[in-house]
Each structure stands twice: as structure tokens, then as C-alpha cells.
Design goal:
Helix content is 96%, strand content 0%. It is mainly alpha-helical.
Length: 83
């Protein structure tokens, strides 16, 4: 192999290594981005579930208040009838 061939061979190996290194870096960056997006999606789902549970609890509490109001109104009506 002549000297020019050796330099070309070394140069092409160097280019390959640089490209491969950049490819690995890009894949790592994409992997981090995908993980971040997945974490964000999980957080959004957790928030939506929590919001649903809070809404459910609020509905239950409103119903309980309405029942107590009906009971109190009934008791007041009974007291008014008695007196």
C-alpha cells in the first residue's frame, strides 16, 4: 500500500468514527427526549386522574350537603307545624 492509500484509509476511518460518534450522541439525545415526553405524558395522565377524583369527591360532597339541607328543611317544617 502506498502512502496516499494509507492516509485515505486512516482518513476514512476517522470520518467513520466521527460520524458514528455523532450518531450515538444523536440517538442518546433522542432517547432522553423520548423519556422526557413519556414522563410528561405520565404526569398529564396522573393530573387528569387526580382531577377526575377531585371532581368525583366534590360531587359526592355536594350531594351530602343537599341531603343535609333537605333534612334540616324537613325538621324546620315539622317544628313550624308543631308551634
Amino acid at each position: 500500500m502506498n502512502i496516499i492509500s494509507q492516509y485515505i484509509s486512516r482518513f476514512s476511518r476517522l470520518i467513520f468514527l466521527l460520524l458514528f460518534k455523532n450518531y450515538i450522541k444523536d440517538v442518546t439525545d433522542i432517547t432522553k427526549t423520548v423519556r422526557n415526553v413519556n414522563d410528561l405524558n405520565i404526569a398529564i395522565r396522573d393530573f387528569e386522574h387526580l382531577a377526575f377524583k377531585i371532581n368525583e369527591e366534590n360531587s359526592f360532597l355536594k350531594y351530602q350537603i343537599e341531603l343535609k339541607m333537605v333534612y334540616l328543611m324537613t325538621m324546620i317544617m315539622k317544628l313550624l307545624i308543631i308551634f
